[in-house]
From TrEMBL, chain A:
Cellular component GO terms, alphabetical: checkpoint clamp complex; nucleolus; site of double-strand break
Family of this protein: Belongs to the HUS1 family.
Protein origin, superkingdom: Eukaryota
Principal cellular location given in the protein's record: nucleus
Pfam families according to UniProt: Hus1 (PF04005)
UniProt protein name: Checkpoint protein
Biological processes per GO annotation: double-strand break repair via homologous recombination; meiotic DNA integrity checkpoint signaling; mitotic DNA replication checkpoint signaling; mitotic intra-S DNA damage checkpoint signaling; nucleotide-excision repair; telomere maintenance
Signal sequence coordinates: none
InterPro entries found in the cross-reference section: HUS1, HUS1/Mec3
Automatic annotation (TrEMBL), chain B:
Compositional bias (Polar residues): 312-323, 417-431
Acidic residues: compositionally biased ranges: 400-410
UniProt source species: Aspergillus cristatus (Chinese Fuzhuan brick tea-fermentation fungus)
UniProt biased composition (Basic and acidic residues): 366-376, 432-442
Protein's UniProt name: DNA repair protein rad9
Amino acid sequence: MRFKTQLTNIQTFTKLTASLTSLGKVCWLRLEDSIVRFTIIPDQGTQVWAQLPVDAIFEPNTYTLESNSGVINLEVPIGALHRALRSANGANSAQIRLTKKGSVPLLALTILSSSWTTGSNAIGISNDEEFEGLFPDEGDRRGTGPRERETVISQEVPVKVLHESAVEGLHEPTCRDPDVHIILPSLLQLKSISERFTKLATIDTKTPSTTTTTTTNPTQPPPSSAVPTTTAPGGSTASPKLELSANMHGSLKLGIASDSLRISSVWTNLVNPALDPAQLSQTEMQELPSERMRRLGEEGDGEEGWARVRIDGRDWGRVLSVGRLSPKVVACFINETALVLYVYLPGSWNGEDSCLTYYINSYST
Amino acid sequence: MTHLSFLLTPVSLVRLHEALTCLAKFNESVALEAEYDLLRLSVLNSTKTAYSAFVLEADSFFENYTFSPSSDISSASSSNRRPDRFCCQIYLKALLSVFKGRTSEKDKDTAVERCEVEIHEDAQQTECRLVIRMICGLGVIKSYKLTYEPMNVQHAIFDRSRTTNQWTIDPKFLREIADHFSPSAEQLDIHPEGDKAIFTSFTTKIAEGKEILKQPVHTSVAIDKKDFEDFLAEDNLHIAISIKDFKAAITHAETANALLTARYTRPCRPLQLAYEFEGVKTEFTLMTRGEASGDDNDAPNSSRSTARESLARQSQPTAQVNPNRPGGQAPENRRTDMPPPLAPAAAAPRSRPIRPLTGTPSASRETNDRNAENERPAVASMEFDSLFVPADDDRQWDVPNDEEEGEDMLGWDATADQETFNASLGAQLQDNESHTLRRDEPVEQQQDDMGIPPTQRMSQLHGLGLFD
């Protein structure tokens, strides 16, 4: 079993691992000839299945993979891998390989980085004068000027090699066709508003207060606009659950409700991406739940055109940490059931191939 | 009556605060020793594996420094055997809280203009205090009175003339290296190989099965020997120290902007990190691990020599070597001025002889336990973040930690576990002879040879009728 490659797009790899780290401690890494998969299945919360072409993070010419089955499955402590990769920030080159120390398999990361010193006083240790006195006078400074200094860093991340039989029972969740699919607005904005809402609801449940209404005023960038609305108190929540809903007419609503407050923000003029017409016939297209929802929404501002899910505020915040990769995110709403996010990474490689899929279950009311 | 007073400028106040912050990483109280020409702040950690000392020179560090020791030795605190100096111990958290924030208010009208520190110790008075007065702008004067305890200071003795390996480097480079280490790594191995010096972080814990994934990442960083100001160390000689102590030293060295020198002989012998700046001499004497080579002073030899050493010390207990003045008065007959290997108590459980003469063993054990407990929060509160790759914008994507935000910084604890404080001092206070930190071992060795319980010196046993 052999795996060895140079890294490319170290930044992307580092950010990817950072996003994954927020969701779980252990990651199933599956290395194949042309694709790399990262999967996190936590005991509770959101699953993520990420698939990248090899050349998204590895240098294809140096990519060596040898195994009986043509596949290597590893269990990786993703946080440790992320930390190790941070050492490669700004490195000249970095190599990763599967190796062994004693009985412990390791992912060994070898990083070569160089920097310029500012006028260091380098002295060659071959200098014979050094050995005349046991300890040379420290005041005697030799060598001049800036020079290039090279540092070799090696990080050894302990991993577990998984047998194919250990992972064959793991399957990506399957869902019915979505009711609404929509491209999410800026994740940073979405994240900060979500966090604010979650916090308000948390404070609210912690300290029973007489406040009956609370308004928030999130900032809104063009072209989409968020309209904060405040309604009468109602509903009840034990732990903060965000209500996320969208329709097929470019609107997304994020809201939270507790005993004493109900807040929501609405984005409009978002894009509902069209599905690939080549894959479906005209009639099939018409029968898609999303098209039905689109027609429902046309009849007015009624509730019927909206698909909604209820998600855990904290978990949602962890999911949104993927925003650091500045991706394009398509959210697929399956009414009252689940929210599936397709996260497409920017970059030169084929967007179709590199996709992170997040599966978020909806809580019932 | 002992009188000590000195005046600090705002600049030296900052320096003092930095030094105290560094010392606080080792233990909870600092030993303060005043001599005619210097003030020494030192801390020995609870496991006695790390000793750090800051020597502030009277002439160059202080604006004004006066020290007059108690003239009447008999009436002075019984622990002060050396009449020409004054020793006491102060709770570091209390001392730090006095200086906290003083350094950042430079631009305010009420910024500190100078700081006066005084100690008046009088055997006739029941209440002795360290008095710190901050003279601020607009006529504001802030006074603090801190309690202190008399104590015997324990110094780690390190003989620089015997070191065979030495290197000097800008601490900035060491900091860059430390940035790559996992926060959970415990030990740091240093060894030269060819034209590289290799720093490897590792942990001694061995995990099995599922735990494998929780093991800290092993990180090794190789830098060119050219990055050192000078480098003279035996090739492939591995020496290992605690990462926590290493980081504490380099963090301070970096703020002091001083070149740091490491000196050592071989594994299991102490390593010293030292540097000097602006009237301050700093040294960290640390326990090392590793595989001791058998060629020179091997283990049996050295234990015999420590026995001899302890005898030598007994015959002339006052002839203590001042570790801060290398090349000083190292007596001829002391073959090993460097303390023998410092093994942590847990790592090297020795058969402890029963000590019937005093209550020290149980008391000190209790204290150790308590110290160990107390040490844990200290570790947690160490600002690991500051040592690692600086936060960038990427952080904004991190999951917010609501729990953390709610908690305030720990300030002055008014409930003052005076009890714990006293207890932690208890052990040291019972020693009534100044000696090195390796007191335990030499005396035990000596017990093997001589058959004397280890807690008291022969000189004190007169009158019992046993050794007269």
